[in-house]
Amino acid sequence: MKYITTVNSHEYEIEIDRDDRIIVNGQPYQVDFQQLAEGGILSLLLNNHSIEAIVEEREEAWEVLIFGELYTVNVQDERAYRLAKARGTAAPITGEAAITSPMPGLIIAVPVHEGQEVKKGDKVVILESMKMENELRAPRDGLVLRVNVQPGVSVEKDQVLAVVGDGVVE
Fold this sequence. Notes:
Blueprint: E1 2-7, E2 10-18, E3 21-24, E4 27-35, E5 41-46, E6 49-57, E7 62-66, E8 69-77, H1 78-87, E9 97-100, E10 105-109, E11 117-118, E12 123-129, E13 132-137, E14 142-147, E15 154-155, E16 160-165
Antiparallel strand pairs: 1-2, 1-8, 2-3, 3-4, 4-5, 5-6, 6-7, 7-8, 9-16, 10-12, 10-15, 11-14, 12-13, 14-16
């Protein structure tokens, strides 16, 4: 099974090949993974290198402490990732996040404007497709940096409708 794992806003494709082997972005690794009796401590042998990690589940991600470095990790199976991406809910916590059209359709409304502050989950664009209205939402907190559409415009699948991110409106 394949998983898309986001670590501090960097994405990795991980495939579980066998019980003792994973493939990360096409690179195979031998693994032995054990949860220790003490809460949240994991022992991992990765290509015969020992790694100890403290793992804690948070609201929408995992926090992993390895060698004094804290990582925020989000794991989704390939199907859930693709669905979230189509809905505009898969995005990094920092940097720019494009909201794209999951299918061809007609823009019904754009309830935001460039420079507006939005929270993750706020409506950014309403798209009508196949006689249904689809609310495309902000994938992260930030500023609306660009709005590339207006009501009444037809759009294609994967067309960038708006961009949310940090920084200054262009």
